């Protein structure tokens, strides 16, 4: 949406400097904040979260496509989370080589054996895309991944539209300013959390944010907390350690932490092995999963978000299994898939390895786990695949077609960074939120949210 | 409004610590920001502006009184600014001993001689009060001063109500939370600036913020800038140096700075001698005053805000002169006056000196100039008065009854400060905004704004 910014603005250093100053202050005023690296657990000194001086244009059709398909992705994730046979089959090989996934899977199994003590499920997902540049100059929406756990930046991105509107006005581009769409994921996420809290049915119970040890990005979460308090829903922030120390289940499996009943556990931590610093953290995770508290996500939905599942979904016939009577949904979802290839042991995986070694520049090697930032590109793919001590370790990865987005020139603003024109590659993220109550899926309509983040500079 | 916070909250260290963390983050999110002392001209690192954890209660009657009398204060300031004889008489002695006031007065005289080139006057005032504790336990609204120049914190205080609402909810005091009134001085100030800009009548002309060399409090001003841009009114920020370097008047006395026509000069700098770092700064001030740009304030309104004028107004019969047919207005204004005494040379001033030396604890010695923070209390009054090399120097001060507000227990939150319960003394500030067009006073209704600042800790 919107044309690119003309060179008379883009390449006028004095104007760009002035605009950057205005943009930083406006971002700070709007609450697009981050704590600083030197003191990530203190709010005494803060800075603006990294953002681009100008908004990143997205073709309208592609944008609407991302919103439209999000409902189907919500349904898909939710269906997968209820299909234990599918999860078992999809993850069988991964579990053998990846301890972390194996551990999560054991909790999942234990919950299945005990029987779930809570029928309400809260899902807050974010599906991330890149715009693959086609020969004819158009672009295709291609999914990078779907985050079913701790999908972030819903808070901060609620305030960036006003920052960009302001900066375009100051830059003398009022028409482009008016083209910027509203965006309020924080409100949408809070609405879903509030619904889950209501269904839990205790006015005194809290929404517990299970937070990281290092909390630089706290403001992103504070938005959702503030939205909940505005609805008179109390929230608390607790770390794994707090749950270890003061958490317990009563005879009805109600979760209490620090003497407070917990209606909803909103996991913003626990997606990486290093988040579990001791065995007690795993005990705490298990206790929360076993509890009557609504989990966001529950252990099964967590597993539904693994890369391996993403890869299995790309196989012929798999989507059809989940949408037997909805060829249109299948078509819409599949249209967003890039090529995804198994690296499991066997002839199919061997073929993937050959393909990757022959043209590593065409692919991305991705670890199964959540978290981002661990992807492997180019020559390094060869190094990793050839360097594996045990060939079975390759099962811990999947291979994906590398997407080729068109770089867009922009200024990336970040604390202390230089003000230079860069070629930026963006992701488009679409949030989806839903609450299921029992077997009757009572989906909330997905709220339409968008989010552009800068992946890297070329 | 509102009762005090009960001890079960106030004296629970763990709860207070949690509330302080939540309050700081909410203040940051809401944009209650300041740059840090170490880098006052950079927005790379910012912190929350100092504020109290809990709101400061103000009796409703006193609060409404402050809003009601503000209209009369606007009228009064504006009438004084147009009464050159009064200003001359009131400031005659001050000018002899205070170079700064003398210099302002010379500009004022030059403008009178040349004839004013702009009939539109923009006034953004803030009248500050303390609540004097009476024997019967009630409190009386007593004016500390009226700021007609660069009255600040209209921006930041627009966001503090939401911070305090939030914190009271988190503290388990939802009823008190609902009692907090809305407050939006930034919008009110911007409305008046916008009106002045409109009356100036050029769509391409800018509102120029004349800003300080050291800009820690930039965010307070950015609020008003953002409000103006929202109305499609362009703003620029310039220092005296910029005006010296690139400012000029055309043949119609239109002011141009950096090639841009200036519709409104909003002075946020220039109220202290040290703001004028060179003769060129004075030249720039004169040029702006001579120009067709609307000034906020113009030189006469600047002078109307001096302490000496405040003291003269407290003399019998003076208010009546400005409100000949409005005994009610006179009564309302006078009710807010504390005792104010001249220190000019002569029998009346001699009597004031005697009074001050006899009981210095009952008074405050105030320099004529704007700026705050320079008041003299207690034993130091004696030192200053007795230490004056030349007795005529005492004319640079006025003496005022010391007001005795009841301290309120609260936690003052400021960057890096300790979290301790303090006895806090607050001021209540009421903003007033008006635009006069020619002789027909076309006052805007004063918008009702309140603002509580912490003066000092006991």
TrEMBL record, chains A, B:
Question: How is its cofactor bound, per UniProt?
Answer: Binds 1 Mg(2+) ion per subunit.
- Which top EC class is given? ligase
**UniProt pathway:** Sulfur metabolism; glutathione biosynthesis; glutathione from L-cysteine and L-glutamate: step 2/2
Q: Which cofactor does it need?
A: Mg(2+)
Q: Quote the function comment for this protein.
A: Catalyzes the production of glutathione from gamma-glutamylcysteine and glycine in an ATP-dependent manner. Glutathione (gamma-glutamylcysteinylglycine, GSH) is the most abundant intracellular thiol in living aerobic cells and is required for numerous processes including the protection of cells against oxidative damage, amino acid transport, the detoxification of foreign compounds, the maintenance of protein sulfhydryl groups in a reduced state and acts as a cofactor for a number of enzymes. Participates in ophthalmate biosynthesis in hepatocytes.
Annotated family = Belongs to the eukaryotic GSH synthase family.
The keyword Transmembrane is assigned to this record? no
Single Gene Ontology MF annotation: glutathione synthase activity
The record's EC number reads: 6.3.2.3
Domain Glutathione synthase substrate-binding residue range list: 206-304
Q: How does it assemble?
A: Homodimer.
Give me the residues that bind Mg(2+), please. Answer: 145, 147, 370
Query: What name does the UniProt record give this protein?
Result: Glutathione synthetase
Q: InterPro entries per the record?
A: Glutathione_synthase, Glutathione_synthase_a-hlx, Glutathione_synthase_C_euk, Glutathione_synthase_N_euk, GSH-S_sub-bd_sf, GSH_synth_subst-bd, PreATP-grasp_dom_sf
Against PANTHER family, the record matches this protein to: GLUTATHIONE SYNTHETASE
């Amino acid at each position: 949406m919107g044309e690119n910014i003309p060179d008379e603005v883009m390449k006028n250093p004095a104007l760009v400097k002035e605009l950057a100053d205005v943009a930083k202050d406006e971002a700070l005023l709007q609450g697009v904040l981050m704590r600083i690296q030197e003191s990530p657990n203190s709010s005494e000194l803060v800075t603006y979260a990294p953002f681009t001086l100008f908004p990143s244009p997205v073709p309208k059709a592609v944008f609407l496509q991302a919103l439209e398909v999000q409902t189907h992705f919500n349904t898909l994730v939710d269906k997968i989370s209820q299909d234990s046979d599918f999860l078992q089959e999809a993850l069988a090989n991964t579990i053998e080589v990846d301890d972390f996934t194996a551990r999560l899977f054991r909790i999942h199994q234990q919950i299945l054996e005990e029987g779930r003590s809570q029928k309400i499920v809260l899902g807050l997902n974010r599906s991330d895309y890149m715009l693959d540049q086609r020969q004819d100059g158009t672009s295709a929406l291609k999914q990078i991944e779907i985050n079913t756990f701790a999908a972030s930046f819903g808070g901060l991105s609620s305030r960036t539209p006003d920052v960009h509107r302001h900066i375009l006005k100051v830059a003398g581009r009022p028409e482009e300013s008016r083209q910027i769409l509203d965006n309020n994921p924080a409100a949408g996420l809070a609405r879903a959390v509030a619904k889950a809290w209501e269904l839990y049915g205790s006015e005194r119970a809290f929404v517990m944010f299970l937070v990281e040890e290092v909390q630089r990005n706290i403001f992103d979460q504070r938005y959702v907390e503030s939205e909940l308090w505005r609805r008179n829903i109390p929230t608390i922030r607790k770390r794994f350690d707090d749950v270890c120390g003061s958490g317990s289940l009563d005879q009805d499996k109600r979760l209490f932490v620090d003497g407070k009943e917990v209606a909803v556990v909103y996991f913003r931590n626990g997606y990486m092995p290093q988040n579990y610093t001791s065995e007690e953290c795993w005990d705490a995770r298990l206790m929360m999963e076993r509890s009557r508290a609504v989990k966001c996500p529950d252990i099964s939905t967590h597993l539904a978000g693994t890369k391996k599942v993403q890869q299995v979904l790309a196989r012929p016939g798999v989507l059809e299994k989940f949408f037997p009577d909805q060829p249109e949904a299948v078509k819409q979802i599949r249209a967003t898939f890039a090529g995804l290839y198994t690296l499991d042991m066997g002839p199919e995986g061997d073929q993937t390895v050959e393909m990757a070694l022959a043209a590593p520049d065409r692919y991305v090697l991705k670890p199964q786990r959540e978290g981002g930032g661990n992807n492997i590109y180019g020559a390094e793919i060869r190094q990793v695949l050839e360097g594996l001590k045990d060939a079975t370790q390759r099962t811990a990865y999947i291979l994906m077609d590398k997407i080729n987005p068109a770089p867009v020139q922009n200024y990336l603003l970040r604390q202390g960074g230089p003000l230079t024109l860069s070629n930026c590659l963006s992701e488009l993220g679409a949030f989806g939120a839903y609450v299921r109550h029992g077997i009757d899926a009572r989906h909330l309509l997905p709220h339409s949210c968008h989010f552009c983040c800068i992946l890297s500079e070329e």
